[in-house]
Structure formats: structure tokens, C-alpha cells
Amino acid sequence: MIKQARVAVVGVGNNTSALVQGIALHRHSGSLVGVRRPAVDGLAVGDIEFVAAFATSQEKIGKDLTEAIFLPPNNFPRLDCDLPEAGVPVTKGLVDATGVDRVAAALAGAEVLLYSAPSGRPEVARAYAEAACRAGVAFINTTADPIARDPEVMSRFEAAGLPLLGDDLASQFGTSVVHNALLRLLQERGLTLVSSYQVNLGGTEDFRNLVENPNTKKRSKLNALPDAGKVEMAPLGYLPHLRSQKVAHLNIEARGWGETVVSLDVKLRVDDPSGAAGVNIDLIRIAASALRNGHGGHPAQATSLLKSPPGTAI
Amino acid sequence: MIKQARVAVVGVGNNTSALVQGIALHRHSGSLVGVRRPAVDGLAVGDIEFVAAFATSQEKIGKDLTEAIFLPPNNFPRLDCDLPEAGVPVTKGLVDATGVDRVAAALAGAEVLLYSAPSGRPEVARAYAEAACRAGVAFINTTADPIARDPEVMSRFEAAGLPLLGDDLASQFGTSVVHNALLRLLQERGLTLVSSYQVNLGGTEDFRNLVENPNTKKRSKLNALPDAGKVEMAPLGYLPHLRSQKVAHLNIEARGWGETVVSLDVKLRVDDPSGAAGVNIDLIRIAASALRNGHGGHPAQATSLLKSPPGTAI
Amino acid sequence: MIKQARVAVVGVGNNTSALVQGIALHRHSGSLVGVRRPAVDGLAVGDIEFVAAFATSQEKIGKDLTEAIFLPPNNFPRLDCDLPEAGVPVTKGLVDATGVDRVAAALAGAEVLLYSAPSGRPEVARAYAEAACRAGVAFINTTADPIARDPEVMSRFEAAGLPLLGDDLASQFGTSVVHNALLRLLQERGLTLVSSYQVNLGGTEDFRNLVENPNTKKRSKLNALPDAGKVEMAPLGYLPHLRSQKVAHLNIEARGWGETVVSLDVKLRVDDPSGAAGVNIDLIRIAASALRNGHGGHPAQATSLLKSPPGTAI
Amino acid sequence: MIKQARVAVVGVGNNTSALVQGIALHRHSGSLVGVRRPAVDGLAVGDIEFVAAFATSQEKIGKDLTEAIFLPPNNFPRLDCDLPEAGVPVTKGLVDATGVDRVAAALAGAEVLLYSAPSGRPEVARAYAEAACRAGVAFINTTADPIARDPEVMSRFEAAGLPLLGDDLASQFGTSVVHNALLRLLQERGLTLVSSYQVNLGGTEDFRNLVENPNTKKRSKLNALPDAGKVEMAPLGYLPHLRSQKVAHLNIEARGWGETVVSLDVKLRVDDPSGAAGVNIDLIRIAASALRNGHGGHPAQATSLLKSPPGTAI
């Protein structure tokens, strides 16, 4: 029998809520709806056990993980399933580079540390990676901060025979994925792109942060697209009533044979944290499996699940 | 210098209008907009010369090809370019299996016969194929009638060392192409399809014919899609004011991780005859090149441009 | 204290399901969501008591009204509220003009008979109206069959001092309402309509019937629109997965000052039975109030809730 | 015979381009497409003569009005009609409150001064109004700067028996008009609004200015809507490739009877300058007619064409 993967998580936001609840839903109903890989090296979706959780919000600290995930500003919905208490109280997380030893101690017994805090605090991300390394735990960086792309950090993990996965989670299904697929389809069929735009609207705290610091995101979104010189990005719109949903409007104007008009309008609605959790469930199992098989460094299998894997520009 | 491909065409409808005008537009401006293959074995888009045209409409017979393409019920627009007279009067076409010798005689000097009449008269299609075979001309069947899939016809062409391309042109960019790409993307990302629909609206004579005989088309459209059991096709809508445009509304409802909702709504507008001509321009050059190189039978290069290449079900 | 309106209903389909459940939901929560008139002459939404129900489906006959509304082909969803048993077993309804006396007897104690069966059986509708008249009960015809427009039937009700409301319920919010509003807005602002189309998709049994007999509906829908000569209706699409939802796609192409393009694309999603019940709740209270006040004939207040009130063409 | 209205214009941007070209198009073809009022007090669309034009751009000054309207950043398209030279060279406009006498002198022979410069320079607007007053010319303020709402300015015009129209042009057909109509329709039919959003995208210089100073516009847009507390405005998106087109995406989520879902998605495409010119053509004729009839002050007929007529808040 497979032993459950023992996971610690940093950040108790919407993405963690979607992950914890989605696992419970799967256990409850056996449902494989929305699951990309039913098993990874023998590990099923339900073979995950949470053993520690770190957060910085005073409201969440001390609460059981299964309770803390519903506290504001989290607004991912409560899924329709039993959610037994995890027995994992949320622990005070790091706010700077100090406290690595405390975290390393708390990771005793964990196999994987999933770093799922907001982007933009690279020194904190590095401190957690250091703690994981000291504790002999695989590390997953889902943020845009460069950790797996940092050759020094990667060397440390490789030397220790520990897996290091990152950086920047690619959502299971989002605007970039769809926009990309359609623009490539156009190219493939020989149509000529005239112009295109993308409007992104969302209602999570993460989205609000992006709205206030839009430039990196905008550039990274454009980088993901073919013929990006003809694509314009409208400013991100934070619309609280959307809650954890993301809505995108895409338009593509092209010309076909005889310069006749081809036009495509798309409205996409997804749940944002769910798109992250659907990838995290795979990253965790890839990390646990690599650790158990003694494979340090970046697992090839993880590359397509990340926007900025090792070797890409920082 | 490359010698121009000498092409005869059966059917002087919208698709032929788009083909003839698109070539003139390219010659006029050098534009490669909407062109999938700038060159096929050295043949550029402009390297096409029309040498004969067959039609059954009394109004079109006797008119120059460049005049006949604007007669009703054709409603493909007049493109913005000079269109010098072709010097090719439209000849009376076949209405049944008689007259093969007359057509064969008229094909003297042609290299390729493009069969671009409405689907649904297989005996007429076969008669033209026979005429091409006798005249030593390559044959392209763009209709759904089984010609290239007919082993007997194929054997005749192979024995004669003549190319035979068909059946059923796959539009350069249409509803099936987009719907397919999106449904496959969904699968690839691990989402679960709940339901999907497709609404097709058009204003050409071809479209009107389909509306009156929808079943074959509906089945062939569903066959083209993954997870087709969950896709519903609304009845085709003939809306004359759309003229040669086709409009499609697609909806895709799916579930992601945690069974959260993913939904996609697409509106697609294309010019229907242009989507056909953009593929015919490639088939013609593939056929001419195969003929010149002495390759009889079905050229592998043509397979992806056809819905029902040899070997698929009749 | 207001005495509850005592209502008998003919037809135990989706519309009756939406009506019965919506009233229960209102009683449960006090919610006035989606309610157009909180009170009609003192009668609140909850002041309705069902006293008889007629249906022709063997499966429904004998079941309590609150159970029968969930039997197939009904597919209006189960609303999230308690639904106490009505104590009203569904009675065998009429299939032709015989049995009027039996129905009249069963209407003892009722104030209003709501005729909510499928359109297309005028002789049955007239038989129920006759029964209502004999029993001294107000009659509401929600179908397109001409009852209130039949001067003979109207005279009978007027002579008896009984209210007669009809014909053909105008949905609370549907495609025609929205299309109409937008086309009128265009006119009002001085824009020039070029073309417009309407696509209607639905999944109820009623919708399936319409798809098979589309002409009357198509004409009545066009009649409802200004500048109808420029509007094209795509064929109705019966898509079972939509269940009780109706989806419409509208397009409006117009020209503004300088002949510049104005275009509007609309996707509308509504629940079809709910749109009927939201109007029936008002018609019932208008009928009961008219009866109680001794006003026979057609109440003026009902006119705007009907597509074909008395005086319009049959 | 009616004497042509003699008009001077301040600002030679897109709106002026649309006005000048639209009048020429009408004269050329007699077309009344997109015209709200074929005649105003006997003045037809073509009964407008431009007699002076003021601008601050060095490139435009000295050019004929019909040439200056095509200079960047103007991007309203060149309409398909003859545009005979106006014989009106663009004059250096005001940049502050000095130069009133010079402008007044230049207005000799004019009947109406149309102030169509960018919003945001109230002192300049007032200076032009003063010049008009001194010259005995009617004044139209199409900007949001308070001129007609300024009681002092209004008194001056009333005392002089001169018409003063303003402030802030209401576009002939735009996002607010459509959003408003749909939200009101919802209310009227008794549906309950849950949430709504509006995304506005445009490509003109005016739009770029708004994007950089969005707050006033946002507030004024919300003020225009019923149930505005439930409506969220996405940030304006300046997408240069749209040129003079404006694109809006509207979403409306509501609940009907039984709390069932009603949802509306709208995509609107309009030409922005055309929507202004279509109203300016009416304001000009109303102003000229009032002047000729000796009616000073604000003409009642103009009120519905303005967002902030006299008496509304500044």
C-alpha cells in the first residue's frame, strides 16, 4: 500500500482552500472531475496528508487548517462535501529571512513544502526553501519569485538529493492558455492576425494585488502569446462581486484568403483558485515521488506545469 | 522559370469567385494575407492560370469566368482589386453521366480539374473524374461525394499515373476547427466536459442547401469532435442577410478541480467561400506538382486538407 | 385578514412546477426576489392556495401536486426550500370537449382556474373555460389558443360577471422583451437598422413541441419586433442539456451618423418556466381580485401581461 | 429658402472630423442613415456652413478645415464621399483666458459656436463663451466643464437674448445608453439585479485622456445607471488598434421568479466620434433656430441631448 504524501503548506489563501477542499471532495465522492492525472507514480488524488501550515494573518494562526481556509479575504466557495478537521493548526509564518530553523523543525515528518504565498517577497520564499533543504523536504515554489531559477538554490537542493520545483504555477485553464491556443490555431491555418485584445476581470485578493502592480503580469502574459506585437492587454479589473471567479473577454481579428474578415470573440469564466489547485495536486505528487525515488533537482515532469522553470529568464 | 499551373474548374459558385478574385488580389498587391503556403514546390499563389470553366446555370454559360462569378445566387463580395478578363468563357457543364468525351476534349491543355460543384450528385462527379482521367489531367474533388475514396476510381488514376485528390474539402478556418481545438484543449488540461453546443448560421446558396438536407452534415460535424456525446448541434440557420459570411456560436460548459464551473462562449465570423478557396489554392498546386513529377494517386501532402481522404468511411 | 385565493390548475408541467415551488420558496424565506408585484389588491405572493389540479399523464394522476411536478418530462429544478404536501391529488384532465360537468363539479370551492396546458388544443381549452363558467370561477388562458379573444366565450363570462383573462402569456423576461427593447432604443436614438437575427435554444418539452411546429411561434415573435422586415429568426434549437433554461443569441447591425458601424451582440440566459410563473402569479391575483370585486370580463390590469389580449387578431 | 446655419467650431479633433465628413456624406448621397432628426425647424442636415475653426495644434493651424481633420492624433476614418475644400483655414485657438476679443472678431458672420475641445480646461471654455456672447453668437458646450450650468454665464446669455446649450454631450448611442436601458427593463419586469459590470475599451486620444483621469468619468457613468450600487466598472482600456471605435462588454446577473438565474452578456461596438457628431448636428440646428427666433438661454429641446443640462449638479 502507498503511503500518503506528507505535505506542509505556506499560505492559507484561496489556492490552499481549493486544494484542501478539492481533496476532501474527491475522498467523499471518488469523483475525478477536473482531475488531470488520476495517479502520479501510484499516488492518487486522495493520497495527500497535510502535516503543517504557515500563515501570517493573525486571524488564521492557531485555527485548524480546515477552518482557516474560510476566513477573509479568502472567498473561494465552500464545496459541497464533508470536510473533517485536519488536526493541523496554522502556525505563524515567516515575514522575513529570520526563523528558518523554527520552520525547519516544524517540517519534521513532512515530505513536501508547497510554497503558495503571494508573489513579491523573494527573501521569504528563499527562507522557506532553506528551511525545506535543512529539513530534507522537497520544495515547490508556485510564485513568480525566482527560486528554482536561482542556480545557487538549485545547487543546494541537488547536492542534498532533494527535489526543487518552480517557478510560477501555470494555471490548469486560464486566459493565456485559451488565447494562446486560438492564436496558434490561426497561425497554423495560415490566417493573418490583424489585432487582438484581452480583458481580465477578477475578484480575489490576489487579483487586487495584481491590479495594483500590473506591469510584470502584463509582460508575462504577453510573453506567453505568439504574434504578441499585435495583442493589446486591457488593464486588469478588480470586481469584488466576481469573488473567486475570473472572467476574460478575448477578441481576435484576422484576415483569411482574399483578405476577408475572420473574427473571434470569446468569453471565458473560470474559478481562479481551482485552476491553481488543479496543478498543485500534480506538483505535490511529482515532488513526493521524486523525493521517495531519491531524485534531487527539478523533475522533468513538472516543467510543463510551470511558467518559469529553471533555465528561463529571471 | 516556373510554368503556371493550368486549371479547369467545375462550378462557378462562391468558392470559385473567392479563388479567382483572391489570386487576382495577390497578383495586384503581392499580399500574402491569409495564405497558408506561400509556395508549393515552387508554385506561388499567382502561378495559376484558368483554362476552362464548366457550369450548368444558363446565365453563366457563355460569360467570361471573371464576369460569371458575380452572377446570382453568388454573393461573395467583389474584392478591391483589378480583375482582368480571363479569356475563359464558361462552358455548359454536365448534368448526368453523359458528355464525358466532350469534357475530356475541352480539358486539352489543362493540368488540373478542380471539381467545385455542390455536393450530392456523385454520378456527375464521377463523370468529370472520368473525363480528367481520359484527358490525362489531375482531379480534385472538393465535395462530400466519394470519388477519391472509391477504390475503382483511384485505381484508374494510379494506373494512369495521375493525381486524384479528395474528398470533401476541410475549410481553412471554420466552426469545426475552432470547436475541436477548444474541446481538445479542455481534455489536455484535464477538465471534464459537461455539455457543449454549436449554432451555425450562413447566407449562401450552399448553406441553404445544407439547411434543407442537414443530417449528413450534422453527423459529419459531430464526428469531427472529441467527446461528441456531450455536444449538441442546433439546426443550421439560413439567414440571407449574412450573404457569404458564416457565423457560429459555441458554448462549452466544463468542470475543473473541485468541480468548479468553467465556461466558454465563442462567436466566430468567417467568410465561407474564402475558407474554401484558401484550401483550394493549396490543393491545386499540390495536384499540379504531383502531375509534373509523375506521382499518380493521392498525394500525402493533401490528406490534412480534406475531411474524407482515401481510406476513410464512405 | 385577506382570504387566500383558491386556485385550480390545468397542466402539471414545468410552469406549474415553477409556480408551486416559487410560492413555497417565498413562504419559506419571505424573499421578494424576482417578484414584480409584491401585492395585488392586498393579495401577497403567498396568498395562493391550490385546491385542484388536472393533468392527462397517467404517471401524474393520483399523485399529490407537489410530487407530480417533479415527474418527467418536467425538468424545472427542485428549488432549495421546504415543499409541504399540498393535499391536492392530480385529477384526470380532459382530452376533448367531453367531461365539462365533471370538471365543473371539481371546481367547487375554487375562485380561479389557471389553464396552463400546452398550446394547440383549442377545443380542450374551451371545455375548461366552459366548466369554469358553469362553476362560477375566473378563467386564465395562458396558451395561444383563442379563448379570451373569442367574442362568444367572452360574452358568456361577462354575462356571468366572471373574469376571463387571456390569451398567451407574455414571459416576464425573454428574448422578445430584450430584442424589442434594443431595437426600439436604436430607433429612438436615430440609428438605422441594417440587419438583426435571433437564435433561440431550449431544453423543455414545450420547446421541443415548438421546434416541431415552428411557424406560428416564428411569426408571433417577428410581430413583436419593430422593423421586423430586417430581422431574421434562426430555427429554434431543442438542446436537451439546457433543461429548463432558454438561451438566446441576438445580433443587431446598425449604422450611425456618417454611416459608421454600430453592432450589438447579446447572449441571454433565462429559466423559461420561471418566466411564465412570474407572470402567472400576477394573473392569478388579478383574476381573484376581479372575481371578489364582481368585475366580469377582461381586467385592464392583465392586458400588458398577455401577448394576445381580447381585440388582437386570432 | 432656408439660409444655412453659419457655424464656427473650437477643436478640430475626431468629433469635428465626423461632423464635417458626415455632413458632406449626406450632401453627396442624400442618405439619412443614422440621422435622428431629418429637419430641425426647417434646417436639414446639409444646411450647415462652417465659417471658422479654432485649434491649438501647430500642425492643424493654417490648414483648411477639411484637411486638418485628418491629421494625427485624429483617427476617425475617411468616409467614402467627396469632401470639397471648406475654404476655412484653421485659426490659432485660445490656451487661456486671454484673446477673447480676437476670437469675438473672428466670429463675425457666425451664428453658432460649437465648443468641441477636450474637457478639463474650464477657463478656456468660459473665454470662448464670452467671445460668443460679445459677438452675438449662440454657444454650445459639449464638454463636461460647467458653462451652461454656471448661473452667471447663463444670465449673460439670457440678458443678451442668445442661446447657450450645454453641458456635456450625451452620445447618440453608447455604453451608458444600452446599460441603462437593460437595467431599467430588468426593474420594470420585476427581476432582481444581483451584479453587473461594464468594460469600456477605446482607441482615440480622448479615450487615452480618460484612461489617465478616470475618476470623474467613472462616477458620471455610474450616476447614469439605476441600482448603481450593484454595478462595477472595470478600468477603461486604451487599445490603440481600435482607433475611433469603442467596444464595451456588459454583464448583468439577475434573479427571476423562484430565484432562478437570468444573465445577459452584451458586446457593443460603436464609432465614438460618430456618436458625438450625430448629436452635435442636432444641437447646432437647435441653437441656430433659437437664435433666429430670438430665444435666449437654454432651449428645452436640447436638454435630452446633454448629460448635465442647466440645473444639474456641477
Automatic annotation (TrEMBL), chains A, B, C, D:
Residues 295-314 are annotated as: Disordered. One of its GO terms (biological process) is inositol biosynthetic process. Keywords: Isomerase. One of its GO terms (molecular function) is inositol-3-phosphate synthase activity. The keyword Transport does not apply. SUPFAM superfamilies: Glyceraldehyde-3-phosphate dehydrogenase-like, C-terminal domain (SSF55347), NAD(P)-binding Rossmann-fold domains (SSF51735). Residues 174-272 form the Myo-inositol-1-phosphate synthase GAPDH-like domain. It is an enzyme of class 5 (isomerase). Its EC number is 5.5.1.4. Transmembrane segments: none annotated. This is Myo-inositol-1-phosphate synthase. It comes from Micromonospora jinlongensis. The lineage of its organism: Bacteria, Bacillati, Actinomycetota, Actinomycetes, Micromonosporales.
